[in-house]
Design a protein that fits this description.
This protein is of the alpha+beta class and 500 residues long. The protein folds into three domains: 173 residues, PAS domain (Beta-Lactamase), CATH 3.30.450; 41 residues; 158 residues, Histidine kinase-like ATPase, C-terminal domain (Heat Shock Protein 90), CATH 3.30.565.10. It has nine helices and 13 strands. Strand 11 and strand 12 form a beta hairpin.
């Protein structure tokens, strides 16, 4: 819950930057492209209009020059050209070229006598020609009309050319002004867009997230009744409804856990009372059983000559012994002796247990094998309690194979930093219905058992910082595993398939 709240808080704090910054950059790039395209298109249109006007103006100048020539006043041509130049601010110069391309008249005296075009005769019609720098030229041919044949003859079609040089400065200035105007307008619009986006993100994203984070904080502090859903149809509303559903599930789980633990506490109190009473009863019953056992032993000696009576007394002694063993197991489970831990050789303990098993099964068909690793380190344990655990597991394995023969294998090895002892039998295995209750006290499937053996063994192993478990291979049989902590180091606990 805390980690989720931190993630949402960080997201809320950086939401504006993460959304608005890329959006602003996209807006700036888009506006810059649009401004550039608009300026270029507008500049192209301006230049096109100026060139059309320049061609029209060149036509007027050509008409004036022709009129002056027809009136026989060629000396007025320079004055006429200078006068016409004053009518256009973007006009740099007007030059009159004769048939061979040499300048005969010009508003720029430096151009007189020069030949600006190498192939002037290619200009058979009016053309706009770009030149070096920010200029362009309008070359207008002066055609040989019928009225001009008296002086120029009829052979030539063109008597000369007008060369008008215009500057692009007005068009460039207009483009710059347009770019400045559009840039200022776009900047103001962008500022307004960013402000609106900032406000919208804060209203539609950041503020709802902050309210959701506040709800998470209240839930983290223990208030599971808080609700975060505000009825929003967007993703934040879905997240809020999911959070409310999670809180509802937590409330249900909390109520179920409280009810469960109340029940367990009541049962624990009852079991504690029953345990105290059972311990007291066990003490009260144990002493009379000892007296009864002694009396039956004397009675068996007196009735040894009567086989039937001796058999009855023997059965009575067996049942008394069984009750005594049950009382001792009950006392051991209710008030276990304190373990006396010391460095213990697991292999030596297993050898003792296997010796006892071989003695008990000397006449039976059971095959007992030991696969003990000599390099297994010592463990910190109570030797007598450890022997009790291994003996109990081995006896259960032998009873599972009793009357049918089989094989009992005991292994010791170092596994994952722990001393692991495995007891494997070739019996029928543990039924599925029995496995969940295997380590519960007083649960047994044996006619002579009391159901405390594995429960006591699991408690002893747990008190030694170890772990007991089992697995049932698909090929049959059962493998019990006891993992203990070595004296020299700690390690991870191995995990069998089923554990106490």
């Amino acid at each position: 819950m805390g980690q989720l709240r931190k993630i949402w808080s960080q997201l809320a704090r950086s939401m504006r930057a993460r959304i608005i910054l890329p959006t602003s950059l996209l807006f700036i790039a888009t506006i810059a492209i649009m401004v550039y395209a608009a300026v270029r298109a507008y500049g192209h249109d301006i230049e096109k209009v100026q060139q059309e006007r320049a061609e029209l103006f060149a036509h007027y100048v050509g008409g004036g020059v022709t009129e002056a020539m027809l009136q026989g006043r060629p000396g007025q041509v320079p004055e006429l050209l200078g006068f016409m130049r004053t009518h256009r601010a973007d006009l740099d110069s007007i030059s009159l070229l004769r048939y061979d391309g040499q300048v005969v008249y010009s508003t720029e005296r430096a151009l007189v006598g020069t030949t600006p075009w190498k192939s002037i005769k290619e200009f058979d019609r009016s053309r706009v020609v770009p030149t070096a720098g920010d200029e362009y030229a309008v070359v207008q041919p002066v055609l040989n009309a019928e009225t001009c044949t008296n002086c120029h003859g009829r052979e030539a079609k063109i008597n000369g050319w007008l060369d008008l040089r215009f500057t692009r400065a007005p068009a460039v200035a207009a483009e710059s002004e347009l770019a400045r105007t559009l840039g200022i307008s776009a900047g103001v619009a962008l500022i307004f867009l960013i402000a609106i986006a900032w406000w919208l993100v804060g209203r539609e994203a950041v503020s709802p997230l902050q309210r959701l984070v506040a709800s998470m904080r209240r839930a983290e502090s223990g208030d599971l009744t808080v609700r975060a859903d505000e009825g929003r149809p967007d993703e934040l509303g879905v997240a809020a409804r999911g959070f409310d559903a999670t809180l509802a599930a937590l409330r249900r789980s909390q109520a179920e856990l409280e009810a469960f633990y109340r029940e367990r506490m009541v049962r624990a109190d009852r079991f504690a009372a029953v345990g105290e009473m059972a311990t007291g009863l066990a003490h009260e019953i144990k002493n009379p059983l000892a007296g009864l056992s002694g009396a039956l032993e004397l009675l068996a000696e007196d009735l040894s000559e009567n086989p039937r009576q001796a058999e009855v007394v023997g059965e009575m002694r067996h049942q008394v012994s069984r009750l005594t063993h049950t009382m001792e197991s009950l006392l051991s489970f209710a008030r276990p002796p304190k373990a006396k831990l010391r460095s213990t050789d697991v292999n030596a303990t297993l050898e003792k247990v296997l010796f006892l098993i071989r003695q008990q099964r000397r006449s039976g068909p059971l095959d007992v094998e030991a696969e003990l690793d000599a390099g297994v380190p010592a463990v910190l344990a109570d030797p007598s309690q450890l022997e009790q655990v291994f003996l109990n597991i081995c006896l259960n394995a032998c009873q599972a194979m009793d009357g049918k023969g089989g094989k009992l294998v005991v292994r010791s090895r170092l596994s994952e930093g722990r001393v692991s002892v495995e007891v494997e039998d070739t019996g029928p295995g543990i039924p599925e219905t029995v496995r969940p209750n295997l380590f519960k006290p007083f649960f047994t499937t044996k006619r002579e058992g009391n159901g405390l053996g594995l429960a006591i063994s699991a408690r002893i192993v747990a008190e030694h910082g170890g772990h007991i478990g089992y697995r049932c291979p698909s090929t049959g049989g059962t493998i019990f595993t006891v993992a203990l902590q070595p004296v020299r180091a700690g390690a991870e606990r191995p995990q069998p398939e089923h554990a106490a």
